[in-house]
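Title: Prediction job returns without error message
Component: structure pipeline
Severity: low
Priority: P3
Assignee: unassigned

Description:
Job completed but the reporter wants confirmation the result is attached to the right record. Sequence as submitted:
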Amino acid sequence: MISVSIAIFFISAAALGLELVLVRAFSIGHWHHFSYLVISIALLGFAAGGTFVSLFSDFFTTRYRKSLWLLALAFAITVPFAFWLCQKVPFDELQLIWDRLQLFYLFAYCLLLFVPFLCAGLSVALAFTVFADNAPRLYFYNMTGSGAGVAAVVALMYGNSPENLLLVISLLAFGAALIFTSSLPRRCLLLTLFCAAISFFVFSPFGAFALKIKISQNKSLVYYKALPDSKTLATRNSPLGRIDCIQAPAIRHFPGLSLAYQGNFPRQILIITDADAVSAINHFDSFAELNCYKYMTSALGYHLLNEPNSCIIGAGGGSDIVQALVCGARKITAVEMNPQVINLVRNQFREFASGLYNRDGVEVAAAEGRNFLQTTRQSFDIINISLLDSFSTSAAGLYALNESHLYTVEAIEQALRILNPHGILSITRMLKNPPRDDVKLLATIIETLRRRGITEPDKHIVIIRSWATITIAACPEILTQMQIENAREFAEQYGFDLVLLPGIKPDEVNRFHKLETPVYYENAQKLLSPRYQDFYKDYAYNIRPATDDRPYFFDFFKWKSLPHMIRTIRGQWLPFSEWGYMVLVATLLQAVVASIVFILLPLYLAKPLKIVQSGKLPVLTYFLLLGFAYMFLEMDFIQKMTMLIGHPVFGVAVTLTGFLLFSGLGSLASQYLFKPASLRRIKLAVLVIVIVGLFEIAILTSSFDWLISFSQPLRILTGLIIIAPLAFFMGMPFPIAIKQLGANFQPLVPWAWGINGFASVTGAVLGTLLAISMGFTALALIAIVCYLLAGIISNYLLNT
């Protein structure tokens, strides 16, 4: 039993690690929304393992030792092989609307990745079936293995490519197969070692089938690498993204530059993250070579203030720092989340960047932007957030599911709070047609000002636009007359269109980059009017302000607008529909259909299940509720821990590792706690989950401002302490029920495992949709209700 448990530990670690690595790989090769689609169907393979064991119970259980070995071996082999085959599939997501063959390619992706997860799922489900009486101990190894896999893979992502990590995951699976050979003939051991050697030789970076991510032709990296004399100077990997540094003589990255500019441009190296988000490093000998940065809308704030103390969120390669220096900033605090970017600019490209990150007056902070705003004790004259997000991704409608805590009402309030009285919050975004980013951002700023008790928010805001960018500048105090006149002069001098300004007149707008109607001006006036709620309701896109509880700034999708878009923009409506949301809905539908097939089909096909005459409905409902509840709470805590810890990678890693580790410990402890009947164990565990869950949600909500004042290591420790008691008891209801089923209705064990797995996969997608529409707090409360219902149903589950 101990060897099986250790092997399950390795398989669980490999399966969770594979999920994370594939998400990373798809974010590089395509966009992370298709990770939802492909990874969900792949994980359904893991859940389907229970179904297949139910269907072929006699076959698997009578020869379980050899079956466990072969399944682990198949898992190890198919991890690199399935990924290699995927990269040969010519899938192009942006052609889905007019090329139906792309649907076939997408199906091929899903099917290929289904196989390794199915092998892993079969192994775990078979182990639970054969050793159901030891379910709590086995669940401990399953959950702690998953937690260890998360922690190890996140750590290994620093400096290692997803391709190399796939080989590490395959090695873990081969390790599990070797453990299973301990009770088999020696030839099984030799065959495992031979397969491992061949696999690593073939799929290694120098092998005949070396693993390599195929990057979509629609991504920026492909375009820039195709330029004449293009060179890749450096490549870096981390959980925050893959960085490619590209140099070419033809590179000119100055988004929204005024058409009035007639001068020269500095040479540039582009830092491209995940093959799409672009930031530039500029080479210069004097500021005179950088005058082009004065001709951008993002320079607006520097024309409203003299020699400001500036904070730049998302410094990247340093273009915004260069702009601040050219425009006369006396001090600059540059905030950049990715330490690899800082290291490249400060060290490897120091000479090319003219020592930008090492200059006097430039202070670099390695931090996430929102967390910096929450924790800094400094005050600033200007806070600049310029073009942080990938334009090509958002323009394609594929950014809708990104959580962004930088563009919420609470984030804007924090930024205004640390500004000096007449300071400026300046946010620049790319223009999109029809308008949506700028409309939602302005709505968020106006809502923030209204919450501060400001009755005339228009006196605090200046907006200008170029042919490609729009800059919104907001002041915590009423703009001075000098600032207003400086804004007018800046727009006139550089050929930018005024959109909003205190006292603006209709004939002052839409002068340089003329539109058929002054839509940006009109939208601003509607947002400022008393009937702004009607404008929210009637607009084609969702432009209601984002909040920390619903931090989906890029969720612009509205179902009621879709038919109109399809009718009026035939053949081209997809990018305008913000179809990232529809990808998520499609993912949910496919998961539901697959779940129905794999959950209900065995009831009619599996002979062992037919023998069980009663108790199937309680089993189905109970394990569905457990899967949904666990996933919903986990998602809620990921969001809260990301906010608390102030780093997306650490937030996810701490939450997943904490939940899985402490749930595993709870499973192990369930054998000794609540000694009376199993029914009472479940009900007591559920009761504790409900009480602790509600208490912790209240604590995180009411004490967040106090907790955020701790140092980051202490916040990580605090996060684990908060997670521990809840996750500990969340690890009990599943193994207790599995053990009881194994004693009374053994054929239902693999089926129950599959049900729980399908609920977890479907719950991840459904939970995202619920968080978008209702918020994370509501999602957590729904999870609590699911646990309550599971506790009630357990009475029928264990007494059938």
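Comment from assignee: result matches the submitted record. The CA atoms of residues 201 and 368 lie 40 Å apart.
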